[in-house]
Amino acid sequence: MQTIQYYPVGRIVSPFKDTVGVPRQAAGARDVGAKIEVFEEFTAGLRDLDGFSHIVVVFHFHMVTRSSLTAHPPWDKGDHGVFATRSPYRPNPTGVSIVRLDGVDGSVLQISGVDMIDGSPVLDIKPYIPELNPSGSVKVGWLAGKMDGMIRSCSGDR
Amino acid sequence: MQTIQYYPVGRIVSPFKDTVGVPRQAAGARDVGAKIEVFEEFTAGLRDLDGFSHIVVVFHFHMVTRSSLTAHPPWDKGDHGVFATRSPYRPNPTGVSIVRLDGVDGSVLQISGVDMIDGSPVLDIKPYIPELNPSGSVKVGWLAGKMDGMIRSCSGDR
């Protein structure tokens, strides 16, 4: 099968050292401070990023060693297709999180609202632009009425 | 350097056959219909996705053959660090777009609001969950007041 090769442009420095206790979603950890150390050779790519209050971080779930086509959140009753969940145990273990950008200091981004584990490879950083969100009504399927479960809980097995 | 290998779980079927005329952002193409053909072996991962009105599509800019640490949008005056832009010419040419999910028919997702080129490899599909967006005020740095330029324009060189 055709494969696509990416390489880290930086790494996460986070208080969460392993999967135990890491928040399920960035939105559940708004006050948790962390850093992105961007590798020296990519620092020029950060110019003008400091004007943005939030960034989209594309990262690799490096501690994930298995994948599944279904996911069973511990706070929910049944299985769901993995593409209908935010489980990290997915065919390509890629995370996409929106975090607050508190400052840029050379090649280091100070961030908060972090659900990433320490050492996670960062593949891409994009500015968060609310105008790219859907306008109009949004339906969230099986998650309707279950946001609290998803956002607030922590677990060793997300 | 450590590399990360991903593989396509599907591909985009889009009216945009190459980089000429493709909208800059999904938000600039809300009425453009397209499809994601999910490969047979991943179809089980789609269960329950049909309840969501919007999805986050992580895809590969397969027609990008160069990368740069700076980007100069044709509708703006100067260069910006690539991580402060949505340019596809980035160290890892990964796109993250929110599109409307109009229907699920077996392994085919009918979508609209598409800025992807036909044949783009899809790496991941996630449910769009507005509760994961930032609460409170958001600053968009150099893009402030320039959303129209970013969202409305089409170009052969984004």
Protein model, in words:
2 copies of one chain form a homodimer. With 158 residues, the first copy, chain A, is mainly beta. Chain A has a single domain (10-152), classed as YaeB-like (Elongation Factor Tu (Ef-tu), domain 3). The first copy, chain A, has 1 helix and 9 strands. Chain A has one helix spanning 147-152; strands at residues 4-6, 10-13, 33-38, 54-60, 70-71, 80-81, 94-105, 108-112, 121-127. A 6-stranded antiparallel beta barrel of chain A has the order 2-3-8-7-4-9. A two-stranded antiparallel ribbon of chain A has the order 5-6. In chain A, a hairpin with an 8-residue loop joins strand 5 (70-71) and strand 6. The first copy, chain A, is globular, with a radius of gyration of 16 Å. Residues 154-158 of chain A have low confidence and may be disordered. At the A-B interface, strand 1, strand 4, strand 6, strand 7 and strand 9 of A face strand 1, strand 4, strand 6, strand 7 and strand 9 of B.
